[in-house]
Amino acid sequence: MHHDMEEFKRLLAQGDVQRGYRGLMAYLHSLRTHCASAYPDYVVSGSVYQGYMDMSYFSVIPASFKRRGLKVAIVFLYDTFRFEVWLAGYNKKVQAVYWDLFRRGPCDPYHPVPSTAGSDAIIEHVLVGDPDFGDTDALTRTIVDGAAVFIRDIEHFLSSHAP
Predict the structure, then answer these.
(1) Which of 56, 69, 97, 108 could lock 90 by a disulfide, CB 3.0 to 4.6 Å apart?
(2) Confidence at residue 163, expressed as pLDDT on a 0 to 100 scale
(3) d(Cα 30, Cα 136) in Å, to the nearest integer?
(4) pLDDT value at position 162?
(5) What is the Cα–Cα distance from 141 to 91, expressed in whole angstroms?
(6) Does the model's pTM come out above 0.70?
C-alpha cells in the first residue's frame, strides 16, 4: 500500500489526474442531462455515481423496464477506459430471474454475464471501446444512439419472452 500511495501522490502532483477526472465527471453529468432531455418519458437517475475509479454511471429507466424491476446503466469503466450499457435489476432477486430468462433465450448480439455472483449486471454491452473525448458531441450521439438500440432490442426480447 505504501508504494501505491507514493505513486498516487506523484501522479496527483502532476495535476493531470485531477483535470482528467474533473473532465470525465463533467462529461458524464452532461451526458446524463442530455439523456434526460432527449428521453423525457424515461426516468434518468438524479445523479452520477462517481465510484472508486473502477466505474462511474447513471441509470436510465424506461417505463416498460420499471414495472419489471429493471434498469439500464450507462457505465464508464476505468480499467478498460470504455463506455458500456448494462441491463440490471433493482435487486438481486430480480436480477437472478431475468438473468435466467436471458440465459435461456437468444437475444443476439447480447449475452448475459457468466454469473450473477459478484455482478451488478444481467447483460453488459460495449458502446464505445475507445472514446474520443476530443469530439464529445459525436461521442454523446454514439452513446445515446447505442443505448437506444440496446433498450429497443431488450424491450423486444422481453415482449416475446418474459411472463
Answers:
(1) 69
(2) 64
(3) 10
(4) 67
(5) 30
(6) yes
Which pLDDT score is estimated for 107? Answer: 84
Q: Where are the alpha helices (DSSP H) in the chain?
A: 2-14, 16-38, 63-66, 92-104, 136-161
146 grid coordinates: 447505442
User: What's the CA gap between 163 and 158, in Å, rounded?
Assistant: 8
C-alpha to C-alpha distance for 121 and 88, rounded to whole angstroms? 5
Q: For cell 458531441, what's the residue?
A: 137
- Burial label for 154, CB within 10 Å (0-12, 13-18, 19+), is buried
Q: How far is CA 162 from CA 20, 23, 25, 38, in A?
A: 42, 40, 36, 27
Residue showing cell 500500500? 1
**70: which strand partners?**
89
First-last CA distance in the chain: 50
Partners of 44 in the beta sheet? 60
pLDDT confidence of residue 161: 85
56 membership: H or E segment, kind and range? strand 55-61
- Cα four-point dihedral sign 147, 152, 155, 160: negative
Burial annotation 84-119 (CB, 10 A radius, 16+ → b, else e) = bbbbbbeeeebbebbbebbeeeebeebebbeebeeb
| SS3 at position 121 | coil
